[in-house]
Queue: 2 jobs
Job 1
Amino acid sequence: MSTEGGATGYIVHHLTPLSVGEGFWTLHLDTLFFSAFLGGLFILFFKTVAERATSGVPGLAQNIAETLVEFVDTQVKDSFHGRSPLIAPLSLTIFCWVFMWNAMDMLPVDLLPMIGSLMGMEYMRVVPSTDLNGTFALSISVFFLIFFYSIKVKGLMGFAKEMTCTPFGPKMMPFNLLLKTVEELAKPISLGLRLFGNLYAGELVFILIALLPPIVQPLLGFPWAVFHILVITLQAFIFMVLTIVYLSLAHEDH
Amino acid sequence: MELASLIANVQGFTVIAVGIILGLGAIGTAIGFGLLGGKFLEGAARQPELVPMLQVKMFIIAGLLDAVTMIGVGLALMLTFANPFLSAVQSVAG
């Protein structure tokens, strides 16, 4: 990274992750820390609410938790046509975790990196979903789940038959295999890149707004922040719904 | 000066590429959203009691429409601010 000054230097500084190691084994410490921290918050919140749940008049925390659980449950009931005790908790985790990742983008751009630089960390990117490693970690995990459940429900022979004999008959096996492989690979790639692209663009617009003179910033920053609230929720919701739909397809057993 | 003209060349082509990526993505998304919204409004006018369900499905499809465009935006922004082609030139020449 060259030492350009001014606007480009500011932008590039804000796009550089805090990493150790090199090449394949580069670890983005900021992504790891924030995703683990937010996951811990999620677990802590639901654990506390579940322990203190009352059948009387619920408090605010219980209300929020119940709304979330009911919302995810409705989605799973609508889209998932198999039997699995894993899907609903998985969907809840994905929705809440991705939503929390995205919501980190609503903090002021310089706030946490400034605190970090006071503690000696030169770079910091606080939104795990703007890191390809973060989004692909989730989507590759979903891909493994799809693969695992496909084999579990259809059996190895059934899975092989599906990969080689659809959509055209058994006579066009190599072509079918190619088509199905591309289709299956497109699922995790598009899942990961969709979330990454949306959030990366959002974060970059915030950084660009931060470069404007302070008088003008609220004029552009406020509408973009309000629009971004929609994008955050929508992207988390879409990730969850697509996970449910892909796993439902994997559970299909004709 | 040779290096400067090389870098200017790469940057010029990158800018054109970014413009094409963003422009074509915007056209696709705009047309797609227009069709989607139009169909949704038609369906809502025919059967208003289905509006909540249709709205949820509309948002799902909106997210799918946005996907490749956003991938393109992410790629274009990466080309603008962290251009790998530029660093290739710089590593060979510098």
Job 2
Amino acid sequence: MRCRPLLGLLALVYLATVLAGFLSPEDPAAQHRELAFAPPTRLHFMDAAGGLHLRPFVYGLAWSAAADAYAEDRSRISPVRFFVRGAPYRVAGTFSADRHLFGTDAPGPLFLIGSDDFGRDQFSRFLHGGQISLFAGLLGAGLSLGVGIVLGGLAGFYGAWVDETIMRVAEVFLALPWMYLLFAVRMALPLQIAPADAFLLVVSVIGLIGWARPARLIRGVVLSATLRDYVAAARSLGASDVYLLRRHLWPQVSGIALTQGALLVPQFVLAEVTLSFFGLGVGEPVPSWGNMLAGLQRYQVLSSYWWMFVPGLALIPVFLLYYALADALHRRAAGFPV
Amino acid sequence: MNGRLAGAMLGLTCLVAASVQGQAARQAAAGDWLVTRGEVGRAGGQLVVIERTEPRTLNPATAIDSPSRDVIWRTMADLIHINRDTQQIEPALARSWVVSRDGRRFTLSLRRGVRFSDGHPFGADDVLFSFRVYMDEKVGSPLRDQLIVGGQPISVRKVDQETVQVEMAEPYAAAERLFDNVAMLPSHLLEQPYREGRLSATWGLGTAAAGFAGLGPFRFKEHVAGQRLVLERNPYYWKRDRDGKPLPYLDQVVFVFVPTEDAQAVRFQSGEADITTRLSAANFSVLLRDQGERNYDLADLGAGLDYTFVFFNQNAPGEKATPAMRRQLSWFRQLPFRQAVSLAIDREGIVRLVYRGRATPIWGHVPPGNKLWANRSLPRPARSIEGARELLRKAGFGSRADGTLVDSDSQPVEFTVVTNTGNTERIQIATIIQDDLKQLGMRVNVVTLELRALIDRLLTTHEYDACVLGLGGGDADPNSEMNVWLSSGNTHLWNPGQAQPATPWEAEIDALMRRQMTTRDVALRKRLYDRVQELVAQNLPIISLVSPSVLVGATRGLGNFRPTVLDHHALSNVEELFWRRRAGGPQ
């Protein structure tokens, strides 16, 4: 598959999370305490009296203790409306708005993929959670790739003691158990830590620990390129190190680095999901796909509410897109037709 | 005539006297049984019970963990026992007792003809030996503190082979309750290890069955490490049913070890275990859903003795405290601040969301499950965000345009609620509190810590703001929580180990708790403890939230299944349990 369509699809996924405030009908932290673990809301076009409605609507839900389930309260309908005003939100931390793509009139509410244990809308949390999980992966991969390119490039280009030193340090980092390191880092920090700081912490740790693998790869590519005749020729003609790196080595490295990046992002998304799953990522009430999945550690949730799996299921297409992109980038870098 | 009548009377008297003597002799030979009131059952079968972990020991003198105690108390007995159902004391190995007028001396008459599970007779020497062991500092028994009254260990004296006298330094209100959970040890087996100073190491899990004896309904049979621990019927047990049949009915009790609560629920659901005693509300609802198709019964016993609460750090700021920490501590010490928090918390929401309705909202620290001591006249203010805002406004707190609550120095009110990792229910409660207090403009962070790290912060370093925690589970008597309520107590959570009470109300609680401890008049004790509950509810050193229901389950067909809210729950009457349909063989 070509790179562009894949990039387009990934861009759409990321755009959906950036516009989470607009696309989601609810504030992700808003609790409906009478509607814990409500199933996905059914959209209706026909009311209880048999009347057809062009505008879809939902019925309110009420807990029926006798049936041990939610039942629709058919005495009143809540029409679904578009571009409604609702809870205020910020888009990419830049401007505030309160207009949502869709929502319902009271009593509502509209849970497209059900609600969680506090009666919070899973769909709104899923989109907002994607901001944390997907961007943590992207930024973590960018950070580790950046550090990996610089250190791997230096090691491969200068060789000798520089190479030895950087590669030995890389081996130490490869041997570090990152989960325990994060436990230790979290213990050393004060109790009170804002969600944004927790996010940066996760990104920094997974990014800075993950540089060793790309560095080893880049070092190998640079080392083999520096031994090529045209590099030796340029060097003998007095080319500077910067010129050599920019003109002859970077073109060799860039394709591989991008491929490596496309492989690293899903790994780091998974790292964030794992950390949050174990309570080491961003804390409540800020959602991430990892802390949304944490509820599945409980037997009751695991055995009763299928919609709690949605963030985990969403990882599959996202990862497949990244792996397809990595394949396409690899083919392009290797000169295969794509 | 008169001589004949006198002779007949004398003959009759001799006959009656001889008959009474014969009856006593027969009774003494047969044993002085305690007759239970439960349904008459049938003998046979085994019971599989789930435990969280393996017991560490079978030695009652050193056991502190609950799995060990669960196993040990099926094999041991005490002199006076707290009936887990009525929460009142009742005779056990002591069939009766007399209390001296000053309330300091107890004369206990032991049951006659009682034998240990190895057939050796039980007597006053065993009682003396047991108390000597528990009170010996070198043994390090956790029961030792319980047996110190008025600063001095109780003294135990043998009157005769069937009578012992216990004396205390001062009158003790719940003195009879002291004897509960004090297992009588076999001196014929343990005297030598005790003399040689190796009693603490005796009766580990590797003990041979022949080297173990107790007075409980079962005796140790075998332990397979990591898999199971098996107890078998004690043929010498001193209880009988109403028909005079020997108890226990069951041949065996098998403990299996399943580490997580979820896995326990799955094992019970699949029929691999017969009894589960500590179900969470979430798992209870899962099991309840399948109850119709499965072969088990579930019981919601209502509020137990456990209660969950949130409390604020009220320790004096240390030398290293930053200005921000000093400011936070000053908020927490203000009563209106704590009252506002209490008023804003949605207790009903906690009951509904966290416990699926299987808990009781509480406003005082003694839950309704504590039938004898709960003060039912405490006010139960309804949740009111407006009322909470008003309290804060009067206390000098204000609001920014964005709704953020600020103190009198215009600093935003922000703090952290800690609780222990792995306790899903407490984490959920903390998250609900976070959302409730957000409505007051407070910014609350929720942090979970490993339990030991949390306890260290609470009781040693005092580096925390607020904490969600739980207490309870042991005895219903107020004396069991002396260490929590006395200002000098090491577990006086919000400000432990005070040299002098920091506030007048803490001083009053100290005086009330000390007085009730030495008062024998139960009605007066109740009034004193009611006042303690009032003071706690008024001053809110802890903000009581909910008391979870005790939820248990048992395989269908288990007779005399009468679980209790006190500890041992479903196993408190294990000697009376029997299988209605499945008797006669292992399941």
